[in-house]
Amino acid sequence: MTISADTTRGTTPAPDTHTDAHAHTGTGTGTGTRTEAEASADAGTDTSSGTGAAVPAAPAVAPVAAADGSRVRRRRRRGLAPGKPWPASRLAGPLLLIALWAAASAAGRLDTGAIPAPWTVLETGVHLWTDGTLTTDVLTSLERAGYGFAIGLVAGVTLALLSGLTRTGEALIDGTVQLNRAIPTLGLIPLFILWLGIGETFKIAIIAIVVYIPIYLNTHAALSGIDHRFVELAEVQGLSKVRFIRQIVIPGALPGFFVGLRLGVTGSWLGLVVLEQINATSGLGYMMFQAQNYGQSDVILVGLLIYGVFGLISDSAVRLIERRVLSWRRTLSN
């Protein structure tokens, strides 16, 4: 015998009335009686199995309206990507360091004889620029770095292509470059002075060596990492050697090449600051060396800041070119 759950009249039907309780409750008369499914959904349980066991329901993925008119808030998943890049975000760190430097100088926490205040360094830089000394030194340093970087760039790319595309080139070149990389480049200065003299030639040669090693290593690694399936596809398509290099090799090697290019640009400035202190009569390194002899720490800081600005500008230029050339890639940075 089943008993009806009709609550609208408050009466009990006759015993011989065989009515399904669940069906009757699902067709209420609109007095606010809620069905079992709705109650289960609000409670976060699933009773569809009929066993009465509370089974956790799936979390809500979209805002839904409950039976009583309230809204269930969507649980949004946090993205794993770093998000959109900030405009000029790479300037935030250097500007923060300058602000801390200025604050410490204004509070008297720094020894002005060892670390002058930023405004003192700026005043010294303006004086050297108007005097004409800084202009000559900057142009001389740019010329040396430019020649050495150009030679190192051509040498690094050429050797990487020869070593990465042919087994003969790899056997003859890769081991030699690895040996050269293991030798400290600045340790070659005395030998290069004996070979090339004390003039400008040995300085440019040392800068070229500093530049070509990272370009070669990263470009060669990118060439070696090209998937062999692309090579098989090029063979099936009947591509010539020139088209294979243009359509497969160059796109595959460009990411590694740009990494090496950034390291090479930075290396050219690092080598220059040392080389310009050896038998030089001009250049930023020469200016800093002379300031050391006279205890002019503000002049030394001017030279260091100019080196830093040149390095930041050149690295940003390489990044910009990389972003334009490799615009087809979808990476975390873009």
Structure overview:
It is a single chain. The chain has a two-stranded antiparallel ribbon. The radius of gyration is 36 Å and the shape is flat. Helix 5 packs antiparallel against helix 10 (241-275) and helix 5 (133-165) crosses helix 11. The protein has helices spanning 21-25, 36-43, 92-106, 118-131, 133-165, 167-182, 189-196, 200-224, 228-237, 241-275, 284-293, 297-325; strands at 64-65, 71-72. Mean pLDDT is 79; it is low at 1-61. The relative contact order is 0.08. It is mostly helical and 334 residues long.
Number of helices: 12
The whole-angstrom Rg is: 36 Å
Considering DSSP H and I runs of 4 or more, what fraction of the residues is helical? 55-70%
- Give, in order, the helices and strands: HHEEHHHHHHHHHH
Number of beta strands: 2
Q: What is the straight-line distance between the termini? A: 71 Å
Tell me what portion of residues adopts beta-strand conformation. under 5%
Structural class: mainly alpha
Shape: flat
Mean pLDDT: 79
Low-pLDDT runs of 5+ residues are 1-61
Largest sheet: 2 strands, antiparallel
In short:
This protein is 62% helix and 1% strand. The protein is mostly helical and 334 residues long. A hairpin with a 5-residue loop joins strand 1 and strand 2 (71-72).
